[in-house]
Design brief:
Elements lengths: L11 H12 L10 H11 L7 H8 L41 E2 L10 H13 L2 E8 L2 E6 L8 E5 L2 E4 L16 H9 L10
Antiparallel strand pairs: 1-5, 2-3, 3-4, 4-5
Helix pairs in contact: 1-5
Length: 197
């Protein structure tokens, strides 16, 4: 397993592990290169977190087939089924969550559709890149701004859940947090996201 997460500098162990993972996938998309990433970052007022940034610059900018089920998206794309009725994605706005939020388990009073969208909309649209979808409205997000920068979250119609172990909590999706840990988890074929090692 890969060691602790550093979102500013790519750990050589993470880079080596990602190179090995993507080398096993002949459908990997060519890396985007430094210039394309810098232009995207400048347009959106962000810096992609490591080791994801190194991956898309030097190793691979996605997978045509899964994982996720419908493939790992190139860094500047969204799934075809994304966006119907959604507001503009604001990558520079901080991602609003720090812990799992299952909408139906929320103790707040009953919210109107408009109030619910006002609270939930930023979870979908602020501070994250879409990594891909497993279908049925299940989207993997890489958080690019805010206190969760570098973490991967699964966000769907039921709620938002962070991937990986967290101090003092029992994780809903155990594993090494961050993009490299998430990639290592899906590279170990046949393992459920929700089961312990």
């Amino acid at each position: 397993m890969m060691c602790g997460m550093n979102t500013d500098t790519c750990d050589p162990a993470d880079s080596a592990a990602l190179r090995e993972i993507f080398a096993a996938h002949p459908d990997a998309v060519e890396p985007a290169g430094e210039e394309a990433v810098k232009v995207f970052e400048a347009e959106h007022g962000i810096v992609l977190p490591e080791p994801y940034r190194t991956c898309v610059v030097e190793i691979a900018d996605g997978l045509r087939a899964g994982p996720p089920y419908y493939g790992l998206l190139p860094f500047a794309r969204t799934p075809r089924d994304w966006g119907a009725g959604r507001t503009e994605r604001l990558l520079a706005e901080p991602f609003p969550l720090t812990r799992a939020w299952l909408w139906e388990q929320d103790d707040d009073e009953e919210l109107s559709d408009e109030e619910f969208e006002e609270r939930v909309g930023p979870v979908y649209d602020h501070g994250s890149l879409l990594l891909g979808t497993d279908g049925c409205g299940m989207y993997w997000h890489l958080i690019v701004t805010g206190s969760e920068r570098g973490h991967v979250w699964l966000i769907d119609e039921n709620g938002a859940i962070p991937f990986g172990d967290r101090p003092g909590t029992t994780p809903l999706m155990p594993g090494t947090p961050g993009f490299a840990g998430w990639a290592a988890r899906w590279a170990a074929r046949g393992r459920s996201w929700f089961e312990d090692d």
